[in-house]
Design goal:
The structure is a homotrimer.
Chain A (H helix, E strand, L loop, with lengths): L1 E6 L5 E4 L6 E3 L26 H10 L3 E4 L23 E3 L4 E3 L5 H10 L3 E6 L6 H12 L5 H8 L10 E4 L14 H18 L4 E4 L12 H10 L5 E8 L6 H5 L1 H22 L7 E9 L26 H16 L4 E7 L8 E3 L5 E3 L3 H10 L3 E3 L7 E4 L3 E4 L1 E7 L6 E7 L6 E6 L8 E7 L19 E7 L4 E6 L3 E7 L1
Parallel strand pairs in A: 1-20, 3-4, 3-12, 4-7, 7-8, 8-9, 9-10, 10-11, 11-12
Antiparallel strand pairs in A: 2-15, 5-6, 13-14, 15-18, 16-17, 18-19, 19-24, 20-23, 21-22, 21-24
């Protein structure tokens, strides 16, 4: 049997996990909002029309931030359409997804619901068709105590205290030609800078995220970030990254190594941000907000041109397999390994639309396979990320050449002393023994081993079999002389919680 | 007597005439709309306030498309001012023509009237002072069936079914420094691209026209088109051309050769469009929309600075001569010769404002001289344009050097087999014999010969003598052995319909 | 005792003083408007809520123009907020000064008040967050007689006749990164050009001021002006200059020589404007509008970040010393010396905010030290500015090297023949004898000598001692054989009115 090894020593750290690494994303797209989180007629609906069953599953994940309301949607959005008495709200053509937007959920409802589930909103402003004035007014509406036009309107609309939203996206994917109001890097950088400046005047306590590239294959990747950060450096806190991974069935080995791609993107953006910092003689560092990521069967999507006007149509409701869940776990491991610079990450999206949670109108809600590594890492993957210097065998992949079969990271909880190791075995056919050197933390004596794997790696959960795939508890792990070996099943995601 | 010759052979074709080549243009300028097509108190007014006498003359021309509402006017226009109850519509300063705009006619009234006369509207959006949002809202108002804010407003305003306007201009003459919200080529190209993208999302079935140069003498002519098409190529269908010809009395020979200038412009824009196609590796071809052309006594116009605030003032109400009508006929011949790429052309404008139709408030409407070649070619100039390879004598001109005295084209109606030859004799003093070789179409045996000419080439029509100048029927033409010779009077426009 | 000399000869002229050189500035900032010029509950308030005591002091200065409503304020301003019934006007966040703007004073109230004090408004449009449409609508509101939407709204709001505002600023300090909606030179130049064009169409009789640099130390100083004027030359009349002088106590000699700096800026901008004129083959000359200048204890101001939301907070209410007043007099002398090109200048600001007038809510209003040279020069410094070729001793300064101790100019009133000499003695410790050669104007026989100086050069006026510092009348001056010598006290500003 093959072996891989890693060393756990709290003296060697990458950085503290920003809990916002476990964020998610709620876009007005498909059925994420309507019949996703919100469905007034649903048996489980609360007084505000939000589904209790879905909210419960959200609480299980406990995403610290929820990006809202888009996504491509926001680039044509009038936020004012979503406030005030519901019967007066206009129905709009959402040009991003060619859907009908009834505006029954807006910033007030969303923010309150997010807070009820324990999440903070991460609000995006429209820099596609709008600019400074719409952004500053929205921020006045959400964050100003009162006594002004927009803050008094919020009060009149039933929210006496400010929503006090701290995290804001300066538009969405403006580098993409598909975006309503797409911009060149310079056009966007200038608009983002001036919008950021005005927003900081409204509320200097906010954090701002500038749009980076929509994905690594954009022809402007890298140069976009350099130009945008040159124009906005001192006015923003984060630069965004987006990446989706398509489970091409004929090359599963490459798909399992998606984290390699994600890390390359992170490292490239860090390099660009630090380059701009050096050239501009700036003091602070720009951090990374990986605010759209997931597995997405993108090749199954016909594109915006395939869509026709409908209210909350079924869009990209991918049904995830065990393989997909292992990849999601691996992507989160990659993000944790860059916790020193990646401060925010949002799995896209929360419900139905390539979501960890699925729901049926009037029917049940359930956990997809990807829900499990995501929820478990969100709950247990907090603390200091350690440098673990893993060694072990590699496997060949079409896309990336030799890639380690073991993909792992470890998190140290300074208070309790507990260490949690997250590990993926990329070997599709054989288990892998992971040898842990724990001599630097002699207090650790034993641990629980939870894993996600299946005889049928393409197995999925759905309305009929919502629990077909769930994490399994493996034999308890016992440390001896500061060492322990754990067997990771073939094609598996694993969590080993050592105390 | 001098002779010129041409050969008619349906095997040699330039292309099919797009009927939209006979379009016209209704701008909110001077008295084109108010007391032109629209005058509620007029004895002939229909229930909607449109003049019946003018409508009848429009029907005689049968322009397949009518560009609306500008022209320079559109670059400062709020289309929302022209919808809803008339008593609530604001009076605005029209900065283009320094006129007062009462907004009593708007998109609803115009579109319905155009359809009643058998025309399609060719609607322009304001890219001078406005952008994406105003354009997409207008398109939603006119073309979306219902169930959304703007489409329901159209329904509430009395139009339950969509106007379904298919042809749209992305602004007007934005290359002109006189334009409200004038733009550089790059500024315009970017705005046009993003507006086009959003509009296509609202309705993917529309055709879009990007602004080309306002005339050939613009310092940016050519480079403007190249930049604009580089930014918009895949998002637009047509590029516009505008050209007016001033009848300088001291050089009538050059004026009669205006078509040479028009063709140079067409060929230059074709070259530019195909250059951008090659560089961008594009598949489709961009076609030409010659959406403002006419004879215009421009030297008599004092410019915008000469104007002062008035409601529908008398602006550039040129009274056209026989010479002007011959030139108009020649310009249409030039357009037909480029029917492979010129798909749309709009004589500017329809009524009163350098229009083929004139009307007096409370008084009569009549046909100007230019009405006749325009109306006859619109009705009979359809089918396949043939390559006719004319030969014959030339005449010297100040502006263009040697120019053929014969300007001609031929159109073949595949169904009936009829061939119509349009021909201008540019010789001001002598008739010209046109020798037609018809051996390739042996079915043609005879034809009617209609011509416009006069002993006094400066003769005009006006309210007192509305029919001073009309087409004359000349002796019937008889084909013998596939040949026939037709005498074209000095300084004349001719139509020979052979069957 | 040291001597300096100058020659008065009306044959040698610089140019006629444009009275607008003595303009001032009313910004919605701090307490300039509210509790400054406007305070409805004040015992002296007139029927419109404006303070009578302040208005009286304004009338004493008689500033021919009053720039309004900003300054930085205007770059986020919606002018529509300030019209109509006061109870409907929204309270806004003013992002420039992080203050609450109640909009109780707007364009109607301000214009009427300015006219009552004998001043003309110099209105600024918002080119920070807004553009062409907002500007043209405002101009239609203020200047169009009636019969249109905006002009009729003005009439409905109680002003039947147009305000007829002739002087307009195209935005404010758009070169400053602190500005809401800051722009690059090209961005601003383009927007200013298109806004100017539309505004001129609304009212061709207006004069327009384009934004120059916010101060000489801006990294874009010079190149900004060149680019902006290249884009706007034929569409604007003036280019603006702003400069404030900080009374650094440890280097009073340099501070007293501030006029040297002001003149360098004027000369640099003249050079740039004339360079653009030459390159562009333009005919007219662009004049200078020095529309923000004053002494300002800028180092005492914590910056915008130090501010928090409040209604008319106490902002930069500097208390001016005798030294400051002497410098203000010297700066006005510098401006007069460039009367050939500087046609407008605005001391910033009129009341409370670094103002010559101070007022307390519910309390008194008084004249600061700087009020005196400003008011006296405004009243007496009209006519033809003469070239006087002064000679005399110099003093060393840290900032400018050797600087003449005498700073002087002379103004000739062609009607009365009177000559007024304004002179500053920069020597802090010794008087300076000024020898006047008046042989070219034999009619001048005697004069009054008024001076501002004090044993304590740091003496100030305040609520307790509003008249601690006032001008003093010195012994009458008598001309003999066309010559007279006048003793200028140490560190003094002087006015010698010869008849």
């Amino acid at each position: 049997m093959q072996h891989a090894a890693l060393t756990v020593d709290p003296a060697f750290r990458i950085g503290e996990v920003d809990p916002r690494l476990y964020g998610s994303f709620v876009e007005h797209m498909g059925r994420c909002v309507y019949t996703g989180i919100y469905e007034p007629g649903h048996p489980s609906a609360d007084g505000e029309g939000f589904r209790g069953d879905v909210s419960e599953l959200v609480t299980e994940i406990a995403p610290p931030v929820l990006r809202y309301p888009g996504g491509n949607f926001v680039s044509g959005y009038r936020w004012e359409d979503g406030i005030g008495p519901r019967e007066n709200r206009p129905t709009r053509l959402d040009l991003a997804w060619r859907s009908l937007e009834t505006n029954q959920v807006g910033v007030d409802e969303f923010t309150k619901w997010a807070r009820r589930t324990g999440s903070e909103p991460m609000m995006a402003v429209n820099l596609g068709t709008r600019g400074i004035d719409a952004a500053r007014n929205l921020l006045e509406y959400t964050n100003h105590p009162g006594g002004t036009y927009w803050s008094d309107l919020r009060r009149a609309n039933g929210t006496p205290k400010p929503h006090d939203i701290k995290l804001w996206c300066l538009g969405n994917e403006l580098d993409g030609p598909w975006q309503i109001g797409h911009k060149t890097a310079l056009e966007y950088g200038r608009l983002a800078a001036e919008t950021a400046k005005a927003m900081r005047r409204v509320d200097p306590t906010i954090e701002l995220v500038a749009c980076g590239s929509s994905h690594q294959k954009m022809p402007t990747f890298g140069t976009w970030e350099a130009t945008v950060l040159t124009e906005t450096y001192d006015l923003v806190d984060h630069i965004s990254l987006h990446s989706y991974y398509d489970p091409l069935p004929e090359d599963r080995a490459s798909f399992l190594a998606s984290g390699v791609n994600l890390e390359r993107m992170v490292e490239a953006v860090v390099a660009t941000a630090d380059h701009v910092r050096a050239v501009g003689r700036h003091r602070k560092r720009i951090n990374l907000s990986f605010d759209e990521w997931n597995v997405w069967y993108q090749s199954r999507f016909g594109g915006e041109a395939s869509l026709d006007w409908a209210e909350h149509p079924r869009l990209i409701e991918d049904e995830y397999s065990v393989v997909d869940a292992v990849v999601v776990g691996s992507l989160l491991i990659s993000l944790l390994r860059h916790a020193d610079r990646v401060r925010i990450a949002c799995m896209a999206q929360l419900v139905n639309v390539i979501g960890p949670i699925r729901s049926e109108p009037g029917g049940p809600a359930w956990r997809q396979t990807i829900f499990h590594p995501y929820a478990l890492m969100s709950r247990h993957g907090r603390g200091q990320v350690l440098r673990i210097e893993p060694t072990g065998p590699v496997g060949d992949t079409e896309a990336f050449g030799d890639v380690p079969l073991l993909d792992a990271t470890a998190v140290h909880d300074e208070e309790s002393g507990a260490v949690t190791v997250f590990a993926v075995n990329r070997d599709q056919h054989a288990p892998l023994v992971l040898d842990l050197d724990l001599r630097a933390v002699p207090d650790l004596v034993a641990g629980e081993h939870t894993a996600l794997f299946d005889e049928d790696p393409e197995a999925t959960n759905n309305a009929e079999r919502p629990d077909r795939v769930t994490p399994r508890t493996l034999p308890r792990v016992r440390v001896a002389d500061g060492r322990v070996s754990v067997e990771l099943p073939a094609l598996s995601w694993n969590m080993i919680r050592l105390r």
